[in-house]
Amino acid sequence: MCSFENMQQFMNSKIHSTKRSMWLTIAIFGLLLVGAGSLFIHNRGMLDDIRAERVSSESILHERNFALQEIRILKNEIARLNEEKSRLIDQSVQDQQNVYQLGRDNKKLTREVSRLHPLEQVLATLEAENKHIATSYTNALQHSKNEEHANERLLAEVSKKENDIIQLSEKLDEYTHRAVLFHTEARRSLGGKTTVHARKTHAMHVEFTLAKGTLPQNAPLYITLTDLTQNIGIVGRELPLTIPVDGENISIQPVALARWEGKGAADRMELDFKLDKNIPAGIYQVDVYSDARYLGGARLRLQ
């Protein structure tokens, strides 16, 4: 009897242990599903932002190609007008020669008429023809002037289109050489949890994206941190240095250094750096430089 009761107690404890393991497994699996869903939503948002930037770049390229096509059409029209102008000038020269020849013929006929007998009707006809030729010549000159004015207007339109292309090229160059999707956040430690409190901030996390090929592999990066509330830079262990940025030498005080490790069609960079001292509450600006250009930055507020 005791043996049966012991066996029954053993089976009951085994069943309870199995149920606890099963519920524990279900809870862990649910936590994994929640984490995977959050990671999927975060990555999907980043992909949507990258697609939006790519669509913006393709739109700018399309506008630039359309403007180039319009300039080619205008240049062809200018060439056609120049040819028409040359033809009219040649025609006017020929008309002048004809007028001169008709004048000589008119004088010759006048002499012959005066020697034979008066032919007033013939003279009137010749005078009418002379007037018609003179009118045709005047109309040709006026048409040539109109064509010159049209040519000047087309040249002005071409100049405007070229300026539009320059502006589009500057926008495209800015997109190509500047970071996008720039994000920064304060953390309690390197790789630790995020925080919005200055007294708990001991590290910074920075993320940004560059167009592929903008920087060579392992290119140096210089990160600065500025307290905008007091308008002072946060000093780290790195020494101040001077770098050329957009053709001008500037002095910066890096709070941290890094190396470019981007890869992929749109290179994404993530870096963390530790703060050597506590910082007060306020608004901070994080900026990233390379050897030859300013890549971008972002602001955050710490309480």
Task: Please provide a written account of the structure.
The protein is of the alpha+beta class and 303 residues long. It folds into two domains: 60-176; 179-302, Immunoglobulin-like (Sandwich). 57% of the residues lie in helices and 23% in strands. The protein is built from two helices and eleven strands; from the N terminus they run ααβββββββββββ. It has helices spanning 2-116, 120-177; strands spanning 180-187, 194-195, 203-211, 220-227, 232-233, 241-245, 248-252, 256-259, 266-274, 282-289, 294-302. The strands form three sheets. Strands 4, 5, 8, 10 and 11 form a five-stranded antiparallel sheet that branches. Strand 1 (180-187) and strand 2 form a beta hairpin. Helix 1 (2-116) packs antiparallel against helix 2. The longest helix is centred in the first third of the chain and has 115 residues, at 2-116. The radius of gyration is 42 Å and the shape is elongated. The two termini are 71 Å apart. The mean pLDDT is 80.
Radius of gyration, whole Å: 42 Å
CATH class of the largest domain: Mainly Beta
Uncertain runs are none
For the termini, the CA-CA separation is: 71 Å
The backbone outline, from C-alpha atoms, is elongated
CATH topology of the largest domain: Immunoglobulin-like
Helix amount, in percent? 55-70%
Q: Counting H and I runs of at least 4 residues, what is the number of helices?
A: 2
Number of strands: 11
- Average pLDDT for all residues: 80
Strand proportion: 15-25%
Order of helices and strands: HHEEEEEEEEEEE
Architecture of the largest domain, according to CATH? Sandwich
Structural class: alpha+beta
Note the main sheet.
Answer: 5 strands, antiparallel
Oligomer: single chain
The tally of structural domains comes to 2
